[in-house]
Q: What sequence folds into this?
């Protein structure tokens, strides 16, 4: 049977992609951020996962305000990259895994989640930048992927409690797949940031560090917040922390922290990475 080997969560700021492309890893501004991924690379080299289930939010590449699903799962053989207007390079497509995608879709629908199914899907910086951070210099990396989109663009957004239940159902779906696979669940976005309005540049370090601790020890504590409360505490775009919560909720074994890193600011955003291992 498939086995979840761990969960990885990280920020996905567009500026990260440009810094990677320009080779800015050793510059004073970027070096503390990129150093936070060295232990992640070592863990991935040791574990060698077969599949990455990527929980992310689309920023208008696939869905716009006229047609915006709450949850969507990709079921394509490959996922192409496109120019979003950030100056990021168009990279070769990422490898899909339709059989695994359909198993996840059918399992989630069976558990009464109404999932939009995408047999074609482009991926933006929320998907691409984490892949480039985790597997540097490998475009695409030698891993199959399943994109899971969550709406954090237009209200109403799914509550943290609903996202937690989605993560639980996702973990059960992965565990029931009848093939010997090592599966990594990735959640991207956040942490606290606001890109517009009178609070543009808002960062809440205290709240971010609390989230990093609770995701390890007591993730259900984060389900008690409403979306409005997350906006107040973490900024308009800080609601992306629900992707981290989904990835954490998918863990079906005993959770062990391997690594965490927090750095501010990166492009007016609180940037973090968290690596949790799923211990049987």
A:
């Amino acid at each position: 049977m498939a086995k979840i080997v761990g969960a990885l969560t990280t920020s996905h700021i567009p500026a990260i992609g440009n810094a990677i492309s320009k080779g800015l890893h050793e510059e004073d501004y970027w070096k503390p951020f990129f150093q936070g991924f060295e232990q992640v690379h070592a863990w991935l080299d040791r574990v060698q996962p077969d599949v990455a289930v990527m929980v992310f939010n689309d920023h208008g590449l696939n869905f716009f305000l006229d047609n915006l699903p709450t949850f969507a799962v990709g079921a394509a053989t490959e996922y192409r990259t496109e120019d979003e207007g950030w100056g990021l390079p168009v990279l070769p497509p990422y490898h899909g895994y339709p059989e695994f995608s359909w198993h996840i879709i059918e399992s989630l629908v069976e558990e009464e989640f109404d999932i939009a199914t995408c047999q074609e899907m482009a991926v933006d910086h929320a998907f691409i930048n984490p892949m480039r951070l985790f597997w540097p210099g490998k475009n695409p990396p030698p891993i199959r992927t399943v994109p899971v989109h969550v709406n954090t663009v237009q209200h109403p957004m799914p509550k943290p409690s609903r996202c937690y239940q989605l993560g639980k159902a996702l973990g059960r779906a992965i565990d029931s797949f009848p093939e010997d696979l090592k599966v990594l669940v990735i959640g991207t976005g956040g942490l606290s940031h606001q890109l517009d309005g009178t609070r543009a540049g808002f960062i809440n370090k205290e709240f971010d560090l609390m989230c990093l601790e609770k995701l390890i020890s007591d993730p259900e504590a984060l389900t008690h917040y409403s979306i409005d409360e997350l906006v107040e505490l973490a900024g308009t775009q800080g609601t992306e922390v629900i992707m981290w919560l989904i990835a954490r909720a998918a863990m079906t074994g005993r959770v062990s922290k391997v690594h965490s890193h927090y750095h501010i600011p990166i492009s007016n955003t609180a940037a973090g990475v968290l690596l949790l291992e799923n211990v049987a």
